[in-house]
Amino acid sequence: MPIHEHYRPGTPCWVDYGALDPAGARAFYGELFGWTFRDEGGYAFIELGGRVVGGFGRVPPGLPASWNTYLATPDAQAAATEVKERGGSVLLGPVPAGRDGRLLFALDACGAPFGLWEGRRPAGIVLVGEPGTWCGHELWTYDAAFYPELHEAEVMPPPEGMSPCWVTFFATAGRAATAARAVDLGATIVSGRDHATIVRDPWGALLALA
Fold this sequence. Notes:
3 helices, 6-stranded mixed beta sheet, 8-stranded mixed beta sheet, single chain, VOC domain-containing protein, Glyas_Fos-R_dOase_dom, alpha/beta, 2,3-Dihydroxybiphenyl 1,2-Dioxygenase, domain 1
């Protein structure tokens, strides 16, 4: 199985879901990907076969449901300063995340939300690239220069009618069948490509099935 523990700066190293309806979202993704959820005091770790594949929390009031991409950084405080210098804004942090490290959450210069993670040990999602785990990221933006050290992410302009954002791609055992199951569970197909299907979950969060 693909194991990924070390992430150089600028590489996506963590994803989490901000839920409007935690119970409903757990049921949806549990059915879709076979995930289970291990609660850790207000936040949960998403697990597949006993391995962590992401995080799960509730969005602050007034924000939409979303999948959030976090980039590795060696210094969250310095990263916060750089975000502002490049025309972005910091929404949260840096704040401690238990004993594992620090995080911040920000908007880039085009308004796309993203996170930064300063880990104190080899950290991030361990299991990747298997059905039910993330297998890639796209950044939909008009200003890729905001991310001068970006690695392991595709960059493209936002599709027509879409806002700048990060999109997490999840591997499937059968993309067509998984997309059909997502629709049965209340998701909406946004667009299809040769190797991916972009969908919105029942609460509007965007993700891609590959």
